[in-house]
Amino acid sequence: MSARSRALRWAIPLAVVPVLALLAYGFRTDPRDIPSPLLGKPASPFALTAFDGKPVSLDALRGKVVVVNFWASWCVPACYDEAPSLERAWQAYRDRGAVLIGVNIQDKEEPARRFLAQFGHTFPNAPDPSGRVSVDYGVYGVPETFFIDRKGQVRFRKVGAVTDEIMKQQVEKLLAEPA
Amino acid sequence: MIRALALTLLLIAPLAAISPLAAAPVSEETVHEIGGQLRCVVCQSLSVADSPSETANQMRGIIRERLAAGDSPEQVKAYFVEKYGLWILLSPPRQGFNLLVWVVPFAALGAGLVLVLLLVRRWSRRAAEASPGPAPDAAMRARIQREMAEREP
After folding, report:
1. Which residues in chain A are closer than 8 Å to B100, comparing Cβ atoms?
2. Residue B123 touches chain A, beta carbons under 8 Å
C-alpha cells in the first residue's frame, strides 16, 4: 500500500471529526438564548398609558434605576413564578431611587387586569398594544426584564423569570453607581 | 399680520401632516418583501410575512409605519437588526464570518466533485491495467485451437 493511499485512508474518518465537533457545539447551545445587542446602549424611550390611566414614560425617570419587565397573562408558569418577586422588589426599592415598570405585551386587557389583581401589583403597568416597545427592546418572549442605569443605559437583560436574588443583585449594583 | 400668519399656519398644518403619507405611499408588496426577510420572533423558523401570529402582525405594522415615515427597506431592516441583532435576519448577511455559510457548501460540493473525479480516474486506470492480460501469441493461439478441437466430439 502506497503512502498516499494510507494517508487517504486516515483522511476520510478524520474529516468526520470537525463535523462532529460542530454538531456537538451546535446541539449544546440553547437556540433561544440570543444575546441582546442592546446592552450598554441607551434604552429606547417610551410613553405608554398604564392600566390605571396614568402616563408611564421612561424619559420622566432619568436619574433613577429603572427595571422594565415584559410580561403576559398567558405566560405560564414563568410570569406567575416571578410575579411575587417583582412586587417585593418594587416595595423594597421604590423609596431608594429605583422604579419598576411592567409592560404587558401580546395580551388582552381583561386577563391582564386579572393577573395584576391576583398578585396585587402596585407598580406602574402598561399595555403595549402596537408591540412597538417590545420590538424597541428586542423582546422575543415573555418574561424578559431589562435593567436600566441612572444614565439611561441598558445594563442587563434577564430572559425568563427573575428571582429575588437577581432583582437584588442587579438593582443594588446600579443604585450604587453615581448618577 | 400675526393673525394672518397664524391663520395660514392653521390652514397649512393639516397639509403638512398628510404630505409625508402622500409622498411615500406604503406598498403592501414592500412590507411583504421586508417581512419575508425577518424572523417572526415568537415562531420557530417562520418569517414575519408568513406567520399568522399577533406578534408578526405587530411587526408588519411597525414595518408599514417606518416605511410611511420615509425609511427605506434597508433602514427598516437595520432597525430590527439594531434591536434584535443579526439573529432577526432569516439569511445571514454575506460578509465577515457569516460568509462561510454561503461559501462552504459550494466549496464542499466542488471538493467532493474533484474527489469523485480523481477516484473514478484511478479506478478506471487500475481496471485498465488489470484486465487485459498479455495478448496470446501464435503458439498460444495454436494451443487454444488444438485443445478446443480435442474437446469437440
Report:
1. none
2. no
- pLDDT tier at B153, thresholds 50, 70, 90: low
ipTM for the whole predicted complex goes beyond 0.90: no
Q: What is the CATH number of domain A47-176?
A: 3.40.30.10
> Against a cut of 0.95, is the pTM above it?
no
DSSP 8-state assignment for residue B98: G
Residues in chain B: 153
CA distances from A122 to A15, A86, B104 (A): 60, 10, 55
What confidence tens digit (pLDDT) does each residue in B76-126 have?
999 999 999 988 998 888 878 888 888 899 999 999 999 999 999 998 888
Q: Do B41 and A137 touch (CB under 8 A)?
A: no
Mean pLDDT confidence for A40-67: 95
User: Hey, what domains does chain B have and what are their CATH numbers?
Assistant: 2-91 (1.10.8.640), 98-151 (no CATH)
Give CA–CA dist B46/B4, Å, rounded.
56
Decide if A34 and B87 are in contact by the 8 Å CB cutoff: yes
Angstroms from A91 CA to nearest CA on chain B: 31
For residue A106, what is its C-alpha cell? 401580546
Q: What are phi and psi of B76, to 5 degrees?
A: -65, -45
A35 vs B contacts (CB less than 8 Å): 85
Which helix (H) or strand (E) is A154 found in, with range? strand A154-159
Provide the chain B residues 54-93 that lie in CB contact (below 8 A) with chain A.
Answer: 54-55, 58-59, 61-62, 80-85, 87
**Where are chain A's structural domains?**
47-176
